Known about the structure:
By secondary structure, the chain is mainly alpha-helical. The protein contains 16 helices and two strands. It has helices at 3-27, 39-75, 79-82, 86-101, 111-149, 156-196, 199-204, 228-259, 262-273, 280-301, 311-335, 339-347, 352-381, 384-389, 407-415, 424-458; strands at 208-212, 222-225. Strands 1-2 form a two-stranded antiparallel sheet.
Amino acid sequence: MNSLLLIFLLLALTTLGYQLGRKRAVALVDHPRQLSSLPGYYGSYVILWCLLPAVLILGLWTALDGPVIDRLVIADLPPEILAKSPDALGLYVNDLKNLATGNIVSSEQDATLVAAADHYRHLLRVSAVAKAALVLALALLGLILSYRAITPKLRAMVTVEGAVKGLLMIGSTIAIFTTGGIVLSLLFEAIRFFGKVPIHEFLFGLEWSPQTALRADQVGSSGAFGAVPLFTGTLLISGIAMVVAVPTGLLSAIYMAEYARPRARTVLKPVLEILAGIPTVVYGFFAALTVAPLIRGWGEGLGLDVASESALAAGAVMGIMIIPFISSLSDDVITAVPRGLREASYGLGATQSETIRRVIFPAALPGIVGGILLAVSRAIGETMIVVMAAGLAANLTANPLEAVTTVTVQIVTLLVGDQEFDSAKTLAAFALGLVLFLVTLVLNIIALKVVRKYREQYE
């Protein structure tokens, strides 16, 4: 059975179970107030026992399905095939899978390969039917048992909310372990890199040329891993983007929250947020084909030497892209400031501009700083605009009219294609990621302390 059809049937069963559970709870009493929980909780109780066991089995079956079928297929192969090396056997199994699914195989289709592919296809069909039957049977069994367990004294709310709390705890635990796994993987690979390249050379080196030489006479492969030009370019482009985005975003948010009429606000805010939905590759094309030539033309008119790919073009377009992050969040935060604070300020004789500067803005400052931090993170992590508008040149410069590159662009460049993960060139990407993670973490800690200080002063 198709997985999409199976999920659809599960959703249909849970919907039916919710309606049946709710109706049964109401039918057992004269008035809903006689129930220990609201009727909706009884329907959710049925959903809980109908869905969770079925989803658990579905997840386990899906995870173990492939390895088990592979073992069964390999066990039925002739001895002469099993006697091959592990790499050759893996290639043979890959060929029979491709043949079974209708893809191209890399070897000749002999009778043994065709029979193994038919066996593999048969096992897939049997597994799909068994999985669907077991999952639907568990869902139906859970529906029946939970439906029969409904009584007026059943504390459905406690069970449902406890289950939801458990799911939330599991989700948060998975998020924590995922974050820890990412950090540990970066740390492990970065330690391997620093075993090949001294850490002081990486952190304080002024030249970035990760092309390591394979021969003694190879030209253009210096193997320099100084990351200072990359972080300088990242800070330069992000700074330009913040100069464009922060004033524009804050001013537009203040206008929409305090000055604009309701009809104008309902039009302006969605139009402004459309910028957040434009793909970054479109911004990259706009920066490379429109903004960069425009800036170069203006620079030549003023007698300045402007590169065809400049940090100013990439930063300006990136600032336009992240304006909605600041304006939308700042508008929501400013709107959430209690109305009583505004009225008290007006009652003391303050003008609207004074109220915004001395009352509303300090009250909304923590949320505004949060929006700016989100925008900074978005700017630091942007890649496509920098690749198309700023280039790949690792130049150590503070001139926004020259071509620079960023850390994220170099990470992508180092990991593109077939790479060996035992060379300093490839491992440098993990070292860059680790340092960027630490720098972002330090900036967030400083920002939280600043926000806490202003909040305490205001309160």
